[in-house]
Specification:
The complex is a heterodimer of chains A (472) and B (40).
Chain A (H helix, E strand, L loop, with lengths): L7 H23 L5 H6 L6 H12 L2 H14 L1 H8 L2 H17 L6 H9 L1 H34 L3 H49 L2 H11 L9 H20 L1 H9 L5 H12 L2 H10 L1 H4 L9 H50 L5 H23 L6 H12 L3 H9 L5 H21 L5 H19 L14
Chain B lengths: L4 H31 L5
Classes of the chains: A mainly alpha (472), B mainly alpha (40).
GO biological process, one term (chain A): sodium ion transport
Family (chain A): Belongs to the sodium:solute symporter (SSF) (TC 2.A.21) family.
Subcellular location (chain A): Membrane
Chain lengths: 472, 40
Amino acid sequence: MTEFALDTSVGLTIVVLFGIGWILFGYWLGRKNKTHEDFALAGRNVGFAFAAATAMATWVTSNTTLVAPQLTYQFGLWGMIGYSFAALGLLLFAPMAKRIKQLLPNGYTSGDFVRLRYGQVAWWVFIIISVVYAFGWLISLGMAGGILLESLSGLDYHIGMTAILIICVGYTLFGGMRAVIATDFIQALIIIVGVSVIAYWLIDNVGLDSIHQNLSAEHPQLLDVLFPAAVMFLFNNIFFGLGEIFHSNVWWSRALSFKKDVAYKAYLTGGLMWLPIPIVTGFIALAAPQLGIFPPSADMIGPTVAAAVLGKAGAIVVFIVIFSALASSLDSLLAATSDLVTQDLFHKKFKPKASDKTLMRFNRYCILGLGIMTWLFCLPRIATLGALLNFAGAFVASTIWPIVLGLYQRKLSGSYAAAAMAFGTLSGLVGYFAIGFYVAALISCAVSGVICWVGVVNSQRLFDWRQLNEEN
Amino acid sequence: MQIPELFFSVLIIAALVITCLTPVILLALFIKDYFSKTIW
């Protein structure tokens, strides 16, 4: 085998072919977009098949295909099981999605909800958290694209990162939410088939018993069910996943774009389908020590193992799987964040009387602008994917209680919600730097929860749910 | 305490089987939506 599993020309060819295919598909789907609601929320009419697939595929990100193996390589068994517990976010969001559709029949974004439910101060805190998280995730995805191409085909990091951003911005720009969801369906099929093929090959050729025996002898801590840092990681990851999904407009805009009565079962099905995937991708990393594979960067362990055992064909499969996983999340994030900026900032703050055409045009400019900003932030390769991801945990976990209580409990007021998110985030960041990444989300969620509890106990007023049904 | 080999194998194979079923379920749902004209 050469230094890289794929020739640079093969890698580039795959990127170009997929890029052209996705952009043309996005353009074709975009022809049906007549209004801003069509563009941003696919006409609020997405059926069960696409809804379930997009819930699953969006949650299968570079983090599932690159970070789940990385964490398994570092934390062993609990790395992959802990990662799979992030499915709880999708499962628990299912009843919330149903309630969101009921309470905000005309809503566009999660920001709409926070503004109407908690007022301006909480909204600003929420928007800051959302923007930090969205950029953290966008940058992690852009970087992952560059790392993937570089490690598998030797293509320069900057060229690979630029290519994947251009492709995702391209088809999201043309097709809006319809393109995002339809491509997610195809990408979901590609991801699952690819991951299954690699795992099956490892079981068939290396053997589960052989992998277990090797780990027992050489790396027993990876099979330890009482690995303290790993157990802490498991709980941290649960709260991180809940925070990511509960607050992010990626998931809210999907809930609002699904047909009535589809949101609940789509998120439930998507969560159940997602649950085993980190275990399968994590397992690939557990085979590394026996195969004598010790990659220079831990976040490349999954692709390196797959490419090593399956040769060129395996490298192509890995390449396409991770490319699809990255695209399925990048497009969602671009669409959801641009909706947030268009609806919450531009429409509600600056141009309340903007026409539908103006909103659609501004939404497209936002997608383009976000793509350019992400590209600029991705230029320096600033952190490993895991580190970047877990830094955001301190932010998002602080939103769990304000969002849940905001949807189901009439007592929590805006000032307490704002304080919960702000102090939760600050505490999580202190935990991140003082203790470690694996406690950031835990501490953030705990502090936020205590403040919310005090807020509910001290509250004298009850929120009127009808205030959420805002006419646009 | 290490995870026993049997439990390790069951965990991985169960995860792989469910993962393999997912494309079948998604395609079946798509066909159902397609014929009932409820894709969008």
